[in-house]
Design a protein that fits this description.
Length: about 230
């Protein structure tokens, strides 16, 4: 479904991604783990067209999207839920969800997707008329994911969805990620909580200073001594 081929990205003269190559197969949850500054967020931003690559290729559904504009990438079916949520604080919950479907014309399916998103996060249904900026951090993260779903993604990019959230809310978020996956959406997950990420991932990649240094199934990476020492606190 998604393939990065020797992707290099620079911030000014500093190379941030160094000939990065990996793939996400249809129907998988794939996680990208690594320390702060390793290039995880830059990878997602490059896939979604927010950062331009210097060299290499990004292929999605057999189409080269390397130099495609960000809104056209969304139209291809790649939807990015960014780190830090970035909801529209002055808009209501309902209006934020409508913005997620901004590029769509299929009104009947939009209504069905709205009902589905609200069924995943019942608290948002209760707060439909409330401004997004007045929600708690956990509720804003739920809204960011629900807004992403309103774009009808084939591939959902999730950047640090559990960051700064209470354990109970983290449980809700990961339960929803699994439900979204079970409904047929492919997911690329960037997550500091490597234990939780690898426990739900079909496959994982470890990134270090812009390079993939280790690849394996999520289960095997959980048992890998190198991963345990560096990312699992054991």
């Amino acid at each position: 479904m998604l393939k990065l081929e020797s992707v290099s990205v620079y911030y000014d003269k500093r190379e941030v991604l160094k000939s990065l190559s990996f793939q996400v197969r249809p129907g998988e949850i794939v996680t990208l783990i690594g320390a702060n500054g390793a290039g995880k967020t830059t990878t997602l931003m490059t896939i979604s067209g927010l950062v331009k690559l210097r060299s290499g290729k990004i292929i999605f559904d057999n189409k080269d999207i390397s130099n495609m504009s960000d809104y056209k990438i969304v139209q291809q079916g790649i939807v990015h839920v960014p780190e830090g949520r970035h909801i529209f604080p002055q808009l209501t919950v309902f209006e934020n969800l409508q913005m997620g479907a901004f590029l769509r014309k299929d009104k009947k399916q939009i209504k069905q997707d709205l009902d589905y998103a609200l069924s995943l996060f019942p608290i948002l249904a209760e707060r439909k008329s409330q401004q997004g900026g007045t929600l708690s951090g956990g509720e804003q993260q739920m809204l960011a994911i629900a807004r992403g779903l309103m774009a009808s993604p084939k591939l959902l990019l999730l950047d640090e969805p559990s960051l700064g959230l209470a354990p109970k809310v983290v449980d809700i978020i990961f339960d929803v990620i699994l439900k979204i996956h079970d409904e047929g959406t492919t997911i690329l997950l960037v997550e500091q909580n490597a234990q939780r990420a690898l426990s739900i991932a079909n496959y994982g990649y470890v990134i270090e200073v812009g390079k993939i240094i280790l690849t394996d199934s999520g289960t095997n990476l959980l048992q890998n001594p190198q991963v345990k020492e560096a990312y699992l606190g054991s």
